[in-house]
Amino acid sequence: QVQLVESGGGLVQPGGSLRLSCAVSGFSLDYYVIGWFRQAPGKEREGVSCISSRDNNTYYADSLKGRFTVSSNNAKSTVYLEMNSLKPEDTAVYYCAARLLDLQTMITSVQTVCVASQFGSWGQGTQVTVSS
Questions:
Q1: Which of 45, 70, 48 is nearest to 58 (CA)?
Q2: How far apart are CA 45 and CA 27, in angstroms?
Q3: What is the rounded distance in angstroms from the CA atom of residue 89 to the CA atom of residue 14?
C-alpha cells in the first residue's frame, strides 16, 4: 500500500527557512518520481518541484529556483524540500505525491510530468504559513 506522510510545516517569518519531509512506505524511491505541490486558498494546486532519485533528475518551478532544494534519502525512504528566503506568497498547504518512474520520463526529464494530474498517490499535506 502506497503511503506518503508530510511533516515539517509551520509558521515562519518572512526570510526564514523550513524543511519539509515526505516519508513514504509501500514502495521504493528508486522506481518512483516524487513531486512537491502546493495549494493556496482560492488557487489551483501548483507544481513546486519533482525528483527522480534513480538518476538524480530534478525540476523546480521557475519562480522558486534558487530558494527551494529537493533531495532524497532512499535509505530512509524520505524526500525533503528545503525552503529558504520564504515569502508571504509561499503560504500554502504543501503536498508530496508519487508516480511510477517510466522510461519516457527517464529519457526526457521529470519536468514533463511535474503537474498534479500526473500523480496518483498523495499525502495529506502540511500547512506552511509565512507571516510576521
A1: 70
A2: 24
A3: 10
Residue 106 clears pLDDT 90, i.e. is over it: no
Cα distance between residue 32 and residue 97, in whole Å: 10
- Residues 44-53: tens digit of each pLDDT: 999 999 999 8
CB contact set of 12 (below 8 Å; sequence gap of 6+): 18, 86, 128, 129, 130
Q: Are 4 and 98 in contact (CB under 8 A)?
A: yes
Residue type, 124: Q
The number of beta carbons lying within 10 Å of the beta carbon of residue 116 is 15
How would DSSP label each residue in 32-49?
EEEEEEEE-TTS--EEEE
